Amino acid sequence: MTFHHLDSADDPRVSDYTQLTDVHLRKLREPAEGMYIAESSRVLRRALAAGHRPRSFFLAEKWVQDLADVFAQYPDVPAYIGSAGLLEEITGFHLHRGAMAAMHRPAPVPLPELLAGARRVAVLEDIVDHTNVGAIFRSAAALGVDAVLVSPRCGDPLYRRSVRVSMGTVFQVPWARLEDWPGDLAMLQDLGFTVAAMELTDDAVSLDELAARNPERLALVLGTEGAGMSAGTLAAVDLAVKIPMRAGVDSLNVAAASAVAFWELRPRD
Prior knowledge:
About 35% of the residues lie in helices and about 20% in strands. The chain has helices at about 25-35, 40-50, 70-75, 85-90, 110-115, 130-140, 160-165, 185-190, 205-215, 230-235, 255-265, and strands spanning about 5, 35-40, 55-60, 80, 100-105, 120-125, 145-150, 175, 195-200, 205, 220, 240. It is of the alpha/beta class.
């Protein structure tokens, strides 16, 4: 494999890696260009294991041997190598988790295919914190959620912070971005899903009660940080569900709440 040694932060060949700390820019640019960034050697390997295709690799010299098997597998994909200082100048932060890679964004999975056979689905409404998005995906992967759907304004599951926090589990859980919100919830209901909103409402049932009902197919909607569920979404769901709280605490962080709910609402047969 031929490695390309960098000597300038202005090298146009590594434009995929520039301004990685500019969240607004990257949220717009990466989906538009059909790419995403896999940050760290572990995440990179999980992306490749999931069948995602690399556009290029980006790393310091000391990580070359650690990824020799990867480079042998993709001999035609360019690998750009630079000093730690130069790589930081290009990306905007210090790389300390091994290599990075610019990856081709996989084609969306059609919803009928995504939901075929699914019994538990998470639906994320406008969750904008990429750390929360990644943490929810990690819990979904660990606790048996079959698919994740995200609203049009939800954070990008393939944004590098989401991918990193999820430890690459965003590559394991099938997901799709909805286009008609909250109208697409009716599609889930038509497919036989009970649609439940995690929200503190006067008529919300407890998590224990919904778990005891053990719906055959369940879609759990998680609302945005702070404001919670929108009125339109609450009007569209079948019921609201809450986690019983103690000591005057009224709620959990949405990522923590998702883990509790995914475990308690798992299929019981």
